[in-house]
Design a protein that fits this description.
- It is a single chain.
- By secondary structure, this protein is α/β, with parallel strands linked by helices.
- It has a single domain, classed as Spore Coat Polysaccharide Biosynthesis Protein SpsA, Chain A (Alpha-Beta Complex).
- The protein has seven helices and nine strands.
- A hairpin with a 2-residue loop joins β7 and β8.
- α1 runs parallel beside α4.
- The longest helix has 13 residues.
- The N and C termini lie far apart (about 45 Å).
Amino acid sequence: MPSHRDGRVAGVVLAAGSSSRLGRNKLLLDIGGEPVVRRVARGALEAGLSPVVVVLGFEAGRVSEALGAIEVERAVNPDYARGIHRSLEVGIRRVPADCDAAVVLLADMPLVTAAMSAALVARFRAGPEAIVVSRYGEVQAPPTLYSRALFPALLASGEGGGRSVVRDHGDRVAAVVWPAGRLADLDRAEDVDRVRSLVPD
């Protein structure tokens, strides 16, 4: 496997979930003056990911509208209720053939910055590994970069999704470590309050 990859790296933002635990569509919440989904997608663009594919599902029209005019590709997963792996499949299939890899992000992680995604790409380009994961202290969570060589495995992963691919190819994984406090999603009202306290308006 080559030790240096300098082609395009795509972004795949998974934004299809129904936010059932929070009770309202968390991707439309205002964080730092913009909807969560736009904040995450904008960060992917600012990291240099190209193209950025946002996979929509639940309330696709409203979430698409919240993205505004930023230059992302929108893809709709009609089977979003069957699990996040369906959205991953939709997004990976939209990655152009000239991309060397894709960074997969979750749209409900607003503390993930452009610098974090860019660091995964830099690590991928510096070494031979096929996967670059993010670790927040002892916890592994998105964003995660997958080499194009592993796209077939992602598409065949079923409910195991990206985690099963990381597990099955553990000898081909590099990691970038982040402070544990940067790990935040928006499943509960207290999560929203904490994130808002960390992000200036």
